[in-house]
Recover the amino acids of this structure.
């Protein structure tokens, strides 16, 4: 008990000594900034069911115009509570794609029918030096040596009840850079 | 009568020393306490013969209950440079103590939670304020600090590392006294004195000044993160001594730490930390102890009780609170069984009533976990719940003197853990052999067990089927005392840890399992030189290697493995009320794990680090020089002291791991304690 309580405050105090190194708001190179999943036939649904087709939109931006090659992979996930997730077996879909900076890229997939409700699955997207990077399901990472590695995952879950819907942004206003 | 000396530090008439078979050190110079005319001298017929009758009281160290005991004398406790006068922080000038960044002791390669710390026999939930800044007791109330780095007595249990015990002193009985102290860190007050025949009291309180310093002297835009720390503590003591052999002691302790961090730009922080991060830890403890050494069987009874509360908020996704009521009881009885054998029996029970709730990520293992962002998509929720942790234990220890110079200390401790429905049996054996007046050989072997932390066995957060874990301690060494002023201590040790509690892969349910091992091997060397009224010096050097294995993974270094730990502390009275001190430490850097990449979580907009081989690299070696200068003035019947305690005199940039950019592409070393001069003023009446 003593140590547990102590660590809570120590963790908090250590934060006080940290200074940000790079401003996250500054784009200095190719960078993945988000993904959105839609169930096939129900674009509002963000959670495809087992055996159902879906689509994931990846959005990659950069400080320049252009394209990069990438690998998209999908696998069932181990249940975990800490750290980056891991595949529980091999991939059930994998393909090479080409991404254009600033434009969403939709990738279709079909979730295995045997996935249990509530079980997690993972969508991966990786690029190595602008080229498609091989995905190692056992290590749950892209095989990429040196600089220029981009790796991203989206953690999905087979819905147990009614699936979650994607937010509707049509009525929202978004300002980039500064308020008008 | 022998048994009456079994107290940790007894006060007995000097004449009784002669019947005690073990060597005892007289800790106080004997002075003629009284010179009087004897009845014979008063008789003119007998002649005017004046007989000097000497009476004296000697403080005698109790016989060792373990092979190795290391202590810091009271006069040194508050003068160790770099500790801001804190006695419990001074423990790291002793061999076997590694450098700790938060004050909690790291003893013989054991993780901090594997060692136990007691204040006057009470276990306290928090030992230090604000991550190691100050211990939670007033420094001038501490009589001594004892360190048992391993192979400790069965009096102590539920720990597989070592033990540190701080003993509070008795309040003064020679009139009412007071003390006020003001420094940059905090302000404190102490009042003590007699309350009547055989009784005395002391009360003390302290509050931090750091928030005041921040609010008034640090510009608002100095830091990206604003810290508002606040701590306070209090102590109360009452001692009633109706006879020299009986003593009633009542102690009260309390402490609170409160921290709130507000980020200047929350959008740049981990999604799990956005917003405020804060927490509060508060506890109150009371203890009643009764010692009776009047008969053949001495006894010590102690009951402590207390409450503690814990609140924590970390961003929008993690919050926890727990209120705990703690009760503990200990009874010890010691009796001589002839000239060569004495026997001790003890009961040691702890019971805690928990009530609270938790929402947040899985708890990491206390050792061996790598920092990672919270998985906010898979949070654990424990609704308001209550449970009881009951841990009773019994122990028996014997002292057998087959020959006058050999002391054998066989013992056994039996613990029951009600929550786990598990027993542990811990047999232990220590021996000390006095080869000559200057040479003592010592060795020990023992089995030690420890239950999981309370949350590690809670359904939902931990594993209800988890078991206690264990350690084998083996040590052997020699103590040398070539002169009154000089002492040397060399000891080798080995430990094997088994059934360690480790996190499951990805901390997936059941989150914790008994699937870890550990091994520690090392050599401790200590030397002390204390010239009466002159130079005092303490040298400690520990060479060790501590390793762990988690599940089926390869062996790795312990998170706080420090190959070389060197500490040199000097103190010298300069005259005219000046006292100067210096401490230098050189310590191998802690192991670190390199981040070799990162992966972006598109669902939560957070990067997760990808780590290389765990603990395969090290921080640069730590080195630090601390100085302390104190000047005392006699002012009437009181005394005024001014001190300057300078931490990290030459501002060494000691690395304590790294800080990473949001995507882990860049990093910079985080430095440890900065150059910090703490100026203080203390007045005593």
């Amino acid at each position: 008990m003593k140590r547990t309580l102590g660590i809570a405050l120590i963790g908090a105090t250590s934060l006080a000594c940290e200074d940000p190194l790079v401003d996250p708001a500054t784009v200095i190179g190719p960078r993945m900034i988000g993904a959105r999943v839609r169930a096939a036939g129900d674009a509002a649904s963000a959670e495809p069911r087992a055996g159902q087709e879906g689509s994931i939109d990846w959005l990659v931006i950069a400080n320049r115009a252009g394209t990069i090659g990438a690998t998209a992979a999908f696998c069932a996930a181990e249940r975990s509570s800490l750290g980056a997730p891991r595949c529980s077996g091999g991939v059930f879909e994998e393909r090479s794609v080409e991404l254009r900076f600033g434009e969403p890229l939709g990738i279709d997939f079909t979730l295995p029918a045997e996935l249990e409700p509530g079980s997690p699955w993972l969508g991966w997207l990786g690029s190595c030096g602008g080229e498609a990077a091989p995905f190692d399901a056992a290590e749950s990472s892209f095989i990429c040596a040196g600089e220029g590695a981009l790796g991203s995952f989206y953690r999905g879950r087979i819905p147990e009840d009614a699936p979650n819907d994607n937010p509707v942004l049509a009525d929202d206003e978004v300002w980039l850079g500064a308020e008008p | 009568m022998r048994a009456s000396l079994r107290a940790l530090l007894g006060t007995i008439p000097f004449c009784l020393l002669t019947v005690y078979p073990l060597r005892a050190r007289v800790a106080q110079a004997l002075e003629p306490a009284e010179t009087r005319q004897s009845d014979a001298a008063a008789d003119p017929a007998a002649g005017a013969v004046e007989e000097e009758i000497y009476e004296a009281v000697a403080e005698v160290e109790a016989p060792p209950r373990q092979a190795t005991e290391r202590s810091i004398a009271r006069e040194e406790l508050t003068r160790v440079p770099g500790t801001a006068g804190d006695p419990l922080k001074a423990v790291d000038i002793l061999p076997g103590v590694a450098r700790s960044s938060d004050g909690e002791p790291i003893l013989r390669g054991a993780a901090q939670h594997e060692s136990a710390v007691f204040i006057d026999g009470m276990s306290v939930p928090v030992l230090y304020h604000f991550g190691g800044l100050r211990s939670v007791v007033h420094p001038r109330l501490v009589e001594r600090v004892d360190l048992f780095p391993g192979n400790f007595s069965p009096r102590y249990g539920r720990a597989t590392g070592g033990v540190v015990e701080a003993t509070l002193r008795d309040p003064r009985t020679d009139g009412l006294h007071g003390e006020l102290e003001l420094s940059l860190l905090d302000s404190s007050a102490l009042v003590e004195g007699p309350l009547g025949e055989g009784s005395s009291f002391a009360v003390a309180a302290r509050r931090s000044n750091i928030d005041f310093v921040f609010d008034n002297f640090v510009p608002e835009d100095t830091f990206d993160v604003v810290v508002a720390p606040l701590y306070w503590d209090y102590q109360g003591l009452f001692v009633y001594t109706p006879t020299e052999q009986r003593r009633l002691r009542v102690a009260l302790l309390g402490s609170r730490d409160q921290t709130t961090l507000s980020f200047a730009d929350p959008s740049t922080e981990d999604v799990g930390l956005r917003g405020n991060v804060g927490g509060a830890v508060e506890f109150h403890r009371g203890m009643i102890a009764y010692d009776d050494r009047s008969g053949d069987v001495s006894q010590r009874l102690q009951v402590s009780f207390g409450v503690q509360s814990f609140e924590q908020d970390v961003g929008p996704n993690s919050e926890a609170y727990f209120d705990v009521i703690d009760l503990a009881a200990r009874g010890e009885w010691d009796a001589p069984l002839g000239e060569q054998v004495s026997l001790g029996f003890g009961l040691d029970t702890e019971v805690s009533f928990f009530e609270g709730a938790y929402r947040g990520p899985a708890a990491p293992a206390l050792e061996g976990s790598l920092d990672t962002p919270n998985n906010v998509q898979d949070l654990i929720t424990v609704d308001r719940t209550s449970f009881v942790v009951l841990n009773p234990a019994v122990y028996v220890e014997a002292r057998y003197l087959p020959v006058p110079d050999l002391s054998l200390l066989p013992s056994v401790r039996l613990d029951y853990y009600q929550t786990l429905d598990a027993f542990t049996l811990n047999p232990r054996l220590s021996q000390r052999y006095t080869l000559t007046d200057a040479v003592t050989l010592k060795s020990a072997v023992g089995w030690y067990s420890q239950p999981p932390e309370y949350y590690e066995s809670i359904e939902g957060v931990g594993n209800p089927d988890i078991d206690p874990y264990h350690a084998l301690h083996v040590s052997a060494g020699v103590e040398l005392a070539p002169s009154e002023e000089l002492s040397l201590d060399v000891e080798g040790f080995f430990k094997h840890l088994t059934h360690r509690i480790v996190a499951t892969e990805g901390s997936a349910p059941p989150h914790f399992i008994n699937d870890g091992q550990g091994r520690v091997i090392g050599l401790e060397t200590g030397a002390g030189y204390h010239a009466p009224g002159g130079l005092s010096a303490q040298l400690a050097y520990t060479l060790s290697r501590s390793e762990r294995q988690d599940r089926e993974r390869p062996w790795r270094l312990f998170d706080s493995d420090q190959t070389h730990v060197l500490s040199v502390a000097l103190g010298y009275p300069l005259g005219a009320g000046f006292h100067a001190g210096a401490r230098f430490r050189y310590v191998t850097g802690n192991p670190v794990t390199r981040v070799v990449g990162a992966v972006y979580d598109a669902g939560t907009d957070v990067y997760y680090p990808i780590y290389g081989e765990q603990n395969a690299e090290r921080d640069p070696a730590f080195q630090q020089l601390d100085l302390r200068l104190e000047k005392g003035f006699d002012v009437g019947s009181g005394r005024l002291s001014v001190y300057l305690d300078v931490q990290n005199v030459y501002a060494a940039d000691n690395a304590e791991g790294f800080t990473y950019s949001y995507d882990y592409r860049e990093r910079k070393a985080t430095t440890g304690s900065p150059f910090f001069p703490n100026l203080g003023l203390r007045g005593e009446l």
User: Anything to note?
Assistant: Confidence is low (pLDDT under 50) at residues 1-18 of chain A. Chain A touches chain B through 49 residues (CB under 8 Å). Residues 174 and 180 of chain A are 10 Å apart (CA to CA). Residues 2-15 of chain A form the longest helix (14 residues).
